[in-house]
Amino acid sequence: MGTAVPPVVLSSMPSSTLTVDRALTPTVAEIRLDHLRHNVRTLRRLASPADVMAVVKADAYGHGAARTVPVLAEEGITQFAVATVGEGAALREAGITGRILVLGAPLPGALQAYQHHALEVNVCSHAIADAVCQVASLEAPLQVQLKVDTGMSRLGLMPEDVPSVLAQLRAAAGVVVTGLWSHYATATATDDAFAAEQWTGFATVVRELPAPLPPLHIGHSGGLLMQDEAAAHFNDHPMVVRPGIALYGVPPSPTLADVADLRPAMRLVSRVTQVKTVPAGASVSYGRTWTAPHPTRLAIIGAGYADGYPRALSNTAGIGLHGTLYPVVGVVCMDMCMVNLGLPETAPAVEPGDTAVLFGDGGPSLSDVADWAGTIPYELCTRIGPRVPKVYI
What we know:
The protein has 2 domains: 33-253, TIM Barrel (Alpha-Beta Barrel); 266-392, Beta Barrel (Lyase, Ornithine Decarboxylase, Chain A, domain 1), CATH 2.40.37. It is 26% helix and 23% strand. The protein is built from 12 helices and 19 strands. The protein has 393 residues and is of the alpha/beta class. Strands 2, 3, 4, 5, 6, 7, 8, 9 and 10 form a 9-stranded mixed β-sheet that branches. Strands 11-14-17-16-15-18 form a 6-stranded antiparallel β-barrel. The chain has a two-stranded antiparallel sheet with strand order 12-13.
């Protein structure tokens, strides 16, 4: 086996010493590290006795992995999950020493990078199993986890193939099997029949395996919040759970919003850049999709779709100003959007420089904004643009 390590592109992560001049930057993402600590403590209590693997892919769901993952480690998390080798390598560069599972399938020729950065391989096909057995050695071992396709129809071995692949990996020199897992396609409601079907399929696979069993995991944020006892144990064998969005204080679905005391870790805020009055009949923004029915006071906000505030929110969303929601009017632009403050004689005293809350305390919730945009909270918090600094509180 060669010794050269393929080049790895490290994920872009903000500096822990970043200083933001609010006079120069209208839009920032405020990250409450105390809320993150509260959430991980809450989820660990819910998961007990199962261990917690924190899903920190996509730069910790847009919250900044360089600052948030060390906080999770301080709270006792020793297992992490990312989507790519680059994300895992970036965590190693940031000093994270815990176990890191790469959820994505390894690309051809990438296994030496897994060895170099001590990352765990998702074995989700016969071809990957064969490659692992060829590359691993006692001098350069590979840790692997087998993924079972129980109904997601994405990555994963078919259930009937798991016993033979597991035996192949256990017999190979330098291969260490550290887990067997699957992924729910739903599991966001207490009467989720398909999630129950997936659990049954996973349990059937596990029962056919010889002892000792590797660590098992299938539960994500929804599965954990549903408190499915079957997902916490398998014949007295403790399992692992993989919360993702819940770590950051966001319920995975509205039906689970009140299940646990989760506190949103992110607030996205911008600034008012101009306040003006337009006459009746004036159209606002590109395409003239909104026309003032009477003289109207407008606040121009310095955030647009390049900052992660979707164009789909045009004429649909509300933005918080001084604790009150005001409607977005006209098409959301790349760098700004417009808010209707009402009639000039009754409009609130909004001035340039005032804080506008796009989501979070003082404005709509992230889930509300996602509903208005026709998407999910996951997408919104991970699409915040690179020009938006993160401020850690």
